[in-house]
Specification:
The complex is a heterodimer of chains A (117) and B (435). Chain A is an alpha+beta fold. Chain A has helices spanning 22-38, 89-97; strands at 2-9, 42-47, 55-60, 63-68, 77-85, 105-110. Chain A has one domain (2-110): Dimeric alpha+beta barrel (Alpha-Beta Plaits), CATH 3.30.70.1060. Chain A is built from two helices and six strands. In chain A, the strands form two sheets. A four-stranded antiparallel beta sheet of chain A has the order 2-5-1-6, covered by helices on one side. By secondary structure, chain B is mainly alpha-helical. Chain B has helices at residues 5-31, 34-55, 61-90, 111-125, 132-143, 148-155, 159-175, 186-207, 220-234, 239-253, 278-294, 301-313, 323-336, 340-354, 356-365, 373-385, 389-402, 406-417, 425-431. Chain B starts with a helix and ends with a helix. Classes of the chains: A alpha+beta (117), B mainly alpha (435). At the A-B interface, α2 and β6 of A face loops of B.
């Protein structure tokens, strides 16, 4: 079973390259990623550029309107995602809890289509 | 000779309460599919309603239902498999998970296995990925064997709302693959089940006797106690299961004295203790004793609340109450679950043990309850006892402006009406000496 982990946190909290704490932060992500790979859970994943780079295409009545910004302005922004393979929701939730974000939320959603089927 | 239809319906309802949860758990365990299990058990009950009036109620209704439900489950599986084959022939790209079984799984029934299946079922119904409303509806439906109509009536909701909650929850369980397992961290999950049973009990407790239709409604306090007793059986090592059961038994033993003949709330202090159910209190004492013996401590929040309820229930008069014991339990509860409301209750207990002025000082130190009617009401009562009826009147009025429950509003109105005249200051300190 495959699940999407949609990771949202305050993007202004992230340390910049060269700043103190950046190496630890990066190291935690590398370790988490490696743990997913070693456990056979990694399917896909990426971190995203900040929301300042986002553009939204809003469709109403079939016509697309292009607007600046992410689709929702909130205190937490989607900063990245994983697609993981897990036996069931409990395992997916455990993996989501392990994500190295100090604060934020992770939406865990089962994928409707199995790409390998 | 065939039994009348009503007798059969009554028998089916009785068996449903007693056995439905076990049947669903057993089938879900064997087939690994909750929805299939629930539907098949439902099929079996419908067949019982059809055939029992003619053939009579079988000697072992549960075994009869289990056999029929198992057969229905296999029928449903075969139908689904052939539908899948037809779909596959028409659209091979739609291949989904292959069917897990084609033949009947072995129906070996061992008691420990059934208990594990029942525990898996109740943990699944109370999985944190489901909304609290869904957890309540699923637990009452699948574990408790209530119909959606009975649940809807108990919660004064349209039946369609309850049915939809059950359907959506079952869909999520299947689509997100919420597992039918006893997880390693089982204590946290049992805690979640107890929270659900606590909510169910509270709902029954708050609405108890407040409606003329009560006689046809399922008594949620009884249902919560029944399911809690089941949890004690399923998780015998959990002290908190017994703690919550004891808490509920104490409350139920005092239910009859809780409302007066007009349906108005009677405070614990003013209750007619001769109307308390003494055998019920004895039963609660036994369960609480087991909860306290289950482990050396620290005790869980439900156990501590049961200890407090026990001190009240075992006091023959209000004046006999062991307030020092209650304060000790509140100290532990506050350390375990710091919250302004627990701090409020602790302050009131301290006022009873050490006098209203000490209690008032503590009350005033609690932050964030200015808009909580019970905080204002407690302040009012303690001010009154401390000889400050003016302050009490103001606090009672604030409490009244914040309260919403009709019974509580009436109670506050009576308290306001009973306040002394405020013209004669001299009278006050004599009429209301500090305790």
């Amino acid at each position: 079973m495959e699940y999407l982990l949609l990771i949202a946190s305050d993007e202004t909290d992230q340390p910049h390259p060269g700043s103190p704490g950046f190496d630890d932060w990066m190291g935690a992500w590398m370790a988490y990623n490696q743990q997913l790979v070693d456990g056979g859970h990694f399917v896909a994943g990426a971190s995203l550029q900040p929301t300042a780079t986002a553009t939204t295409v809003r469709k109403t009545a079939g016509a697309g309107q292009i607007v600046d910004g992410p689709f929702a302005e909130t205190k937490e922004q989607i900063g990245g995602f994983y697609v993981i393979s897990a036996a069931d929701l409990d395992e997916a939730l455990r993996l989501a809890e392990g994500l190295p974000i100090p604060k934020g939320s992770v939406e865990v959603r089962p994928l409707a289509v199995r790409p390998d089927a | 000779m065939s039994p009348p239809q009503e007798a059969v319906s009554a028998a089916v309802t009785r068996v449903a309460r007693q056995e439905r949860g076990r049947l669903v758990a057993l089938l879900a365990g064997r087939f690994g599919d909750l929805d299939l299990a629930d539907e098949s058990v439902q099929d079996a009950f419908e067949e019982a309603l059809r055939t029992w009036p003619e053939r009579g109620v079988p000697d072992q209704p549960a075994a009869w239902l289990m056999t029929v439900a198992g057969r229905k489950a296999i029928d449903r599986t075969r139908r689904a498999a052939s539908a899948r084959r037809r779909t596959l022939a028409a659209a091979p790209e739609l291949q989904l998970d292959p069917p897990a079984y084609e033949e009947a799984p072995a129906m070996v029934i061992d008691q420990a296995g059934i208990r594990d299946d029942q525990l898996r079922l109740v943990l699944l119904c109370c999985h944190p990925a489901l909304s609290p409303e869904a957890q309540v509806a699923l637990t009452l439906r699948l574990v408790g064997g209530l119909t959606t109509a009975e649940i809807a009536a108990a919660y004064v909701l349209p039946e369609a709302t309850v049915a939809q909650r059950v359907v959506r929850a079952k869909r999520k369980i299947s689509a997100a693959r919420i597992p039918f397992v006893i997880p390693a961290a089982v204590d946290d999950r049992i805690e979640a089940v107890l929270q659900v049973l606590y909510l169910v009990f509270n709902e029954g407790y708050l609405t108890h006797g407040t409606t003329s239709a009560a006689s046809i409604r399922v008594d949620l306090t009884d249902e919560a106690i029944r399911l809690n007793a089941l949890m004690v059986e399923l998780a015998p090592d959990s002290g908190e299961c017994r703690g919550l059961l004891a808490l509920q038994l104490f409350h139920r033993a005092r239910l009859a004295a809780r409302l007066d003949r007009h349906g108005d709330l009677v405070l614990l202090d003013d209750q007619d203790r001769s109307r308390w159910d003494l055998p019920g209190i004895e039963a609660a004492n036994r369960v609480l004793g087991e909860a306290l013996a289950a482990r050396p401590g620290p005790f869980g929040a439900f156990t501590l609340q049961a200890v407090i309820a026990g001190f009240h229930a075992n006091a023959r008069t209000s004046a006999d109450t062991d307030w020092t014991g209650i304060v000790t339990a509140y100290d532990q509860l506050l350390a375990l679950r710091p919250s302004p409301v627990v701090a409020l209750n602790r302050a009131v207990a301290i006022a009873m043990a050490d006098g209203p002025r000490v209690g008032l000082r503590l009350l005033e130190q609690i932050e964030g309850l200015e808009r909580y009617h019970l905080w204002q009401a407690a302040r009012a009562e303690l001010m009154l006892r401390a000889g400050d009826p003016r302050g009490a009147a103001e606090a009672f009025h604030r409490a009244h402006s914040l309260a919403t429950n009709p019974a509580e509003l009436r109670h506050l109105e009576r308290r306001i009406a009973a306040l002394p005249e405020l013209d004669d200051d001299r009278l006050l300190s004599e009429t209301f000496p500090p305790l």
